[in-house]
Each structure stands twice: as structure tokens, then as C-alpha cells.
Design a protein that fits this description.
This protein has eight helices and four strands. By secondary structure, it is of the alpha+beta class. Bound molecules: glutathione. The site of glutathione has 11 residues, from helix 1.
Length: 208
């Protein structure tokens, strides 16, 4: 398999690399990384658009030549190929709760961070035309209140969806780090989120 990838700070390919690292060396070895240079227009080439018509990374090329996009969908496929350790849950109940948390991370925190990035950050000004700066900036507050909500939820919990690291933690780590990089810092009073962040960042997979 091949993973069309982009280096840090791109948050989504990082999720797949981290997922593979958590699955272990056999999974890592099964996927060749092919870097696509976002800054040099690599996502807009006919070759890449044929892999993913949306023009984004990551894309996983399966061994039969099929292209699969969307980070969580890619990880779900890899979960089937490399079931241990399970990161999408075992029982229907575990699976549903992990799905709930993954969606909450993406929707409640990812949406305001994404809107801030697209509409308030100078880096995207050339590609997001027009940028609605006031709207973009308004997402800082939405992100902060989502972090505040998450901080309460994480009280007494080791990982986002319970006692084991799951896809929800991987999504949250890459999101919090990317948000930090674009200027959305964790509030100093988000103690539970910070403790969780230290715990997950300390894993070797965090630097994959
Ligand atoms: N929903 C997609 C989002 C992928 C995404 O936004 N990838 C970024 C890199 S981290 C990208 O390709 N951005 C370029 C663009 O959207 O033009 C997923 O989960 O894979």
C-alpha cells in the first residue's frame, strides 16, 4: 500500500502515520509513504486529483490500485488489515462510543479550528478568497469554549473514549497541535486536556 502523505504541520496525514505506528512495525512496513508537496501545488496535479478529486491528503492506495480518502476512513480500513491493538473498539458499544468521540472531536473542536485557519490565518489568504476575517476570528471563542467543555468531560479519564488509546485520541492530538501551531493555544485552566495532551504526546507514535 502507498500513503500519499504530507509532512508536519499537516494534521491529517499525521493521524494515519500515528495510527500505523500504534499498530506496530508490521503495519508501518506495509505502507510506503509518498510525500506530496502541498506548497508546490502537488495537490492540484492531474495525477493527484485522479487519486482524490477533492485534492487533499492523505490518500491510501490499496494493493489493488484503489484510492481511499478521508483520514478516519483510511484508518478504519487499516484497522481491518491490522486489528491489534484495536483502536476502533471491540464490542458494538465500544465502537459506538469511540465513533461518538471521534465525531465530537472533529465537529466540536475541528470545525472552529478549521474555520479559524481558513478565514483568519494569513497563511491561507491566497487560497481562501474571500476570507471573512471577522467570522474567522469569531471561531477562537468557539474553539476555547469547546476546549472548556472537553476539559470537564475528560475529568477522571485517561483517554478520550475510556481507558485505551483510540482513533479519537489520535484525531484530538493532531487537532490540538495544529490549533496551537495556527495560534489557538490551550487555555491555561484546561488542566485535564493538558494532562491528556502530555500523556498522548509522550507516546513514540506522536512523532511518527
Ligand atoms: N476531511 C479530510 C481533510 C483532509 C485535509 O484537510 N487535508 C489537508 C492536509 S492536512 C489538505 O490536503 N489540505 C489542502 C486543501 O484542502 O486544499 C480528511 O479527513 O482526510
Amino acid at each position: 500500500m502507498k500513503l500519499y502523505n504530507a509532512a508536519m504541520p499537516a494534521p491529517n496525514p499525521r493521524r494515519v502515520r500515528m495510527f500505523l505506528a500504534e499498530k506496530g512495525p508490521k503495519a508501518v512496513a506495509a505502507v510506503e509513504l509518498v510525500d506530496v508537496d502541498i506548497m508546490k501545488g502537488g495537490l492540484r496535479t492531474p495525477e493527484h486529483l485522479a487519486r482524490n478529486s477533492v485534492g487533499q491528503v492523505p490518500v491510501l492506495e490499496l494493493n489493488d490500485g484503489t484510492f481511499l480518502s478521508e483520514t478516519v476512513s483510511i484508518c478504519r480500513y487499516l484497522e481491518g488489515e491490522f486489528p491489534d491493538p484495536p483502536m476502533f473498539g471491540r464490542s458494538p458499544k465500544e465502537q459506538a462510543f469511540i465513533d461518538q468521540w471521534t465525531r465530537r472531536v472533529e465537529l466540536r473542536l475541528g470545525t472552529p479550528a478549521g474555520m479559524f485557519w481558513r478565514h483568519a490565518h494569513p497563511f491561507t489568504a491566497k487560497v481562501v478568497v474571500p476570507q471573512y476575517k471577522e467570522f474567522g476570528e469569531s471561531n477562537r471563542e468557539h474553539y476555547n469554549s469547546a476546549v472548556k467543555w472537553l476539559d470537564k468531560e475528560l475529568s477522571g479519564r485517561i483517554f478520550v473514549a475510556g481507558d485505551d488509546l483510540t482513533i479519537a485520541d489520535i484525531c484530538l492530538l493532531s487537532l490540538v497541535d495544529f490549533a496551537d501551531w495556527i495560534g489557538l493555544k490551550l487555555s491555561p485552566d484546561a488542566g485535564n486536556v493538558k494532562a491528556w495532551h502530555e500523556r498522548v504526546s509522550a507516546r513514540p507514535s506522536a512523532s511518527a
